[in-house]
């Protein structure tokens, strides 16, 4: 799986958009970008994933650059409950043996009142 | 639909003992993965089971083992516990290939 680079920490004001960047310059053509988050003392929670196109769901939006070397997770209206460590992961999504998620250090997002 | 459940939630053992942790996946999910999380190493993949077979394995010693039952429930076992095995052990389930994984709350193991 390709390696990812994320900032160690970020702050965001409550109610504002939180934009979390991720660099994955060595991503392969068949690797997807996944985002998970982990709130303190809980198991990681799936947020969203994408291959090439931008994706949106009820939790967040994922913007992937055209060259796929970087992406941004957007939480449109951050709340205090969004304070968590956010992990950006790239992985192959089809057969074979690539089922594991390789977690890096992630970004600690702190949403401030 | 009930989420992934793990038992026990907390466990204290002493060095040299063995421990068995249990994971019940979301109904219908056939893939179960196990991860170890420590402050120093972060989240690390242990192994993954699908239809009672281990399909993938991470870089952990043979003291770490697992199995999956016909109802997809999974157990992991750690023998001859070491202090460094103190960690949060997380189980995740998914339907199949490369689909999003749903994590349980974890079992906090403390080795004294």
**Low-pLDDT residue intervals, each spanning 5 or more residues of chain B:** none
- Mind describing the biggest β-sheet of chain A? 5 strands, mixed
Q: How many helices of chain B in DSSP terms?
A: 0
Helix-strand makeup class of chain A: mainly beta
Q: Helix- and strand-based class of chain B?
A: mainly beta
| Termini Cα gap of chain B | 37 Å
Oligomeric assembly: heterodimer
Notable traits:
heterodimer; A: 113 residues; mainly beta; five-stranded mixed β-sheet; four-stranded antiparallel β-sheet; 9 strands; 0% helix; globular; B: 112 residues; seven-stranded mixed β-sheet; 11 strands
Structural overview:
The complex is a heterodimer of chains A (113) and B (112). By secondary structure, chain A is mainly β. Chain A has strands spanning 9-13, 18-23, 31-38, 45-50, 55-56, 61-64, 70-75, 84-92, 107-112. In chain A, the strands form two sheets. Chain A has a five-stranded mixed sheet, with no helix packed on it. In chain A, 35% of the residues are buried. Chain B is an all-beta fold. In chain B, strand 9 and strand 10 form a beta hairpin. Helix content of chain B is 0%, strand content 54%. In chain B, the strands form two sheets. In chain B, strands 2, 4, 5, 6, 9, 10 and 11 form a seven-stranded mixed sheet that branches. A four-stranded antiparallel sheet of chain B has the order 1-3-8-7, with no helix packed on it. Chain B has no helices and eleven strands. The mean pLDDT of chain B is 93. Chain A binds chain B through residues 32, 34, 42-46, 49, 87, 91-95, 97-106, and chain B through 4, 31, 33, 35, 42-45, 48, 55-56, 58, 90, 92, 97-98, 100-106.
């Amino acid at each position: 799986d390709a390696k990812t680079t994320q900032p160690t920490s970020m702050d965001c004001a409550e109610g504002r958009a939180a934009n979390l960047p991720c660099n994955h310059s060595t991503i392969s053509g068949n690797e997807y970008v996944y985002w998970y988050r982990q709130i303190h003392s809980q198991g990681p929670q799936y947020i969203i994933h994408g291959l090439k196109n931008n994706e949106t769901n009820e939790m967040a939006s994922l913007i992937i650059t055209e060259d796929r070397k970087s992406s941004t997770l957007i939480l449109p209206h951050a709340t205090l409950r969004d304070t968590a460590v956010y992990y950006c992961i790239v992985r192959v999504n089809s057969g074979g043996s690539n089922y594991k998620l390789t977690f890096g250090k992630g970004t600690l997002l702190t949403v401030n009142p | 639909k009930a989420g992934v459940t793990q038992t026990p939630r907390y466990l204290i053992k002493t060095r040299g003992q063995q421990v068995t942790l249990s994971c019940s996946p979301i109904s219908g999910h056939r893939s179960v993965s196990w991860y170890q999380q420590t402050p120093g190493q972060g989240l690390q993949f242990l192994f993954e089971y699908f239809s009672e077979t281990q399909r993938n394995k991470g870089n952990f010693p043979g003291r770490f083992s697992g199995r999956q039952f016909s109802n997809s429930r999974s157990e992991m076992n750690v023998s001859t516990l070491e202090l460094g095995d103190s960690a949060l052990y997380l189980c995740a389930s998914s339907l199949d290939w490369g689909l999003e994984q749903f994590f349980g709350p974890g079992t906090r193991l403390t080795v004294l």
